[in-house]
Design a protein that fits this description.
It is built from four helices and seven strands, in the order H-E-E-E-E-H-E-E-H-H-E. By secondary structure, it is of the alpha+beta class. The protein has one domain: Electron Transport, Fmn-binding Protein, Chain A (Pnp Oxidase, Chain A, Roll), CATH 2.30.110.10. The protein has a seven-stranded antiparallel sheet with strand order 2-1-5-6-7-4-3, sandwiched between helices. Strand 5 (79-84) and strand 6 form a beta hairpin. InterPro entries: F420H2_quin_Rdtase (IPR004378), Split_barrel_FMN-bd (IPR012349). It catalyses: oxidized coenzyme F420-(gamma-L-Glu)(n) + a quinol + H(+) = reduced coenzyme F420-(gamma-L-Glu)(n) + a quinone. Belongs to the F420H(2)-dependent quinone reductase family. This is Nitroreductase family deazaflavin-dependent oxidoreductase.
Length: 135
């Protein structure tokens, strides 16, 4: 099973042949954000689902009290890089509205049931993020 930096490297090197299909039937994309403090580029493997032409990820951070760095980065710099298998593109990232989250959360918890456990562990509302391919 791949994690972290090795996951990113293998995914990039194989156009997702290694790393796209992950644990318990989940699929993973690579999200590249620009650091809000450093300006450096950071790539993170994330479980996703498609929603029409968009891609959806969850900023769970395992239910920690604080949002993950990648989420803080994309709120400061919403233009991100995305790789789904061999498809690399620029996207606009935005936090789902309350209504969108109500629809999308159950879809994400269906593929990764621990999201419900993570939400139960923290007082912060865990954001759902929509990645919209740039025109």
């Amino acid at each position: 099973m791949l994690f972290g930096k090795e996951h990113v490297e293998r995914y990039q090197a194989t156009d997702g042949e290694e790393g796209h299909d992950w644990v318990k039937g989940t699929t993973v994309l690579l999200l590249t954000t620009t650091g809000r403090k450093t300006g450096k580029r950071y790539t993170t493997p994330l479980i996703y689902r498609s929603d029409g032409a968009d891609f959806v990820v969850v900023a769970s951070n395992g239910g920690a009290p604080d949002s993950p760095s990648w989420y803080k980065n994309l709120t400061a710099h919403p233009e991100v890089g995305v790789q789904v298998k061999g498809d690399r593109f620029t996207a606009h990232a935005r936090t789902a509205s309350t209504q969108e989250k109500a629809r999308l959360w159950p879809l994400m918890a269906e593929v990764w049931p621990d999201y419900d456990n993570y939400q139960a562990k923290t007082d912060r509302p865990i954001p759902v993020v929509i990645l919209q391919r740039a025109e």
